[in-house]
Amino acid sequence: MVRFVHFGDTHLGRRNFKLEERERDFEEAFKQVIDFAIRKKVDFVIHSGDVFDTGRPRYRVVNFLVSQLLRLKREGIPFFTIPGSHDVAPDGTLLSTLHKVGLLKNLGEEEYFEKRGEEVILHGESYKGAFIAGVPGRRANISQLYKSLRPELKGDFRILIFHHIISDISGKFSDIEKEVLPRGFDYYAGGHWHSRFETSFNGKPVVYPGSTEVWDVREVGEKGFFYVEDGRRKWIPLKTRKFVELVVNCDGLTPSEVSQRVRERIEPNDGAILLIRLKGRLKEGSKAEINRKGIMDTALERGYLYANIYTSELLNPKEAQVSLEHKSLEEIEKEYLEKKGYKGKELEVGMRLIDLFGKRLTASEIEANKRKLFGMLGL
């Protein structure tokens, strides 16, 4: 039997809160998996999609991935993957280039799919007695694609890598019904769902390792990957940056008193991200604003990398609140701009400018973005 590592949703290049340190955190998690694979001398590594956070990753991010793939290549450990939804740009995916130069096997390439009438023969790669095939994370007509698949089953142990959320996880957010998965595989390596999840199909395991780092604060929790040996899988936790939640009751306080109470509650730390949630109803007649900068400064002084303050559960009788609960940073930014009166093309430009803020761009990249922004405004 074979030994392999299964991980996914590494989202290399991701920056929570636009922090460069968070980009390094995603890389460190990826490196930990590669370190483990080399140390265990596994037969191969499988990645279930979203290697990158964007279809056009920065050169530095690409260089990091190449350095890790070269480490595996020197040890004779193949890297099998498929494109996730984040890996694809309008003109293709960088995974195709890495496939062509032999740094990885992109099982989503056209060469692995053969159209025969209404059926699609799913080819894959055979390696050390295992057969590994994959379905890329596209969304259009995806259920129909699965129904038409006829896997070319080979080997003693068969693995399907796919990047879709099955109905067992979430009926509301699922991409496919579990029943459309092709039969005949011994291990179904799922991606796209960022939390660990395990179920079965036709008596065989369907396994999602989740993301290797916290992509969004709604996903805070233990991160890791699976090590599979002789068909038995073991969960391996990763050492990732800590997130600390601080809930502060602000009933009857003025904004200045809220700021003081929060600062008093911040305990010393060593590099975690602090999530501060303010609850309750402010004192009637309060007009001043909460001193966010003062709170942030205190958090930094006490060792935190960053502090984010959530006020969705804080009521001010004189002021409408912007809801932050269950929203991504991008959704919050968009809602803020909309409340400021931006809409249409102006809103798109504003979101683009926020996305560019804090990024280190070359002169040519700055010029290209200027042309794009002016074009969006029709100038």
What does this structure look like?
The chain is α/β, with parallel strands linked by helices. It is built from nine helices and 20 strands.
Low-confidence stretches: none
Radius of gyration: 23 Å
- Order of SSEs: EHEHEEEHEEEEEHEEEEEEEEHEHEHHH
Total number of beta strands:
20
Major sheet strand order: 6-3-2-1-16-17
Structural class of the secondary structure composition?
alpha/beta
Largest sheet features: 6 strands, mixed
How would the global form be characterised? globular
Strand content: 25-35%
Supply the key terms.
20 strands; alpha/beta; six-stranded mixed sheet; 379 residues
Blueprint (SSEs and pairs):
Blueprint: E1 3-7, H1 20-40, E2 44-47, H2 59-74, E3 79-81, E4 88-89, E5 92-93, H3 94-100, E6 105-106, E7 113-116, E8 119-122, E9 125-127, E10 130-135, H4 142-148, E11 149-151, E12 157-162, E13 187-190, E14 197-201, E15 204-208, E16 224-229, E17 232-237, E18 243-249, H5 255-265, E19 273-281, H6 292-301, E20 306-315, H7 329-339, H8 344-356, H9 363-376
Parallel strand pairs: 1-2, 2-3, 3-6, 8-11, 10-12, 12-13, 13-15, 18-19, 19-20
Antiparallel strand pairs: 1-16, 4-5, 7-8, 9-10, 14-15, 16-17
Helix pairs in contact: 1-2, 5-6, 7-8
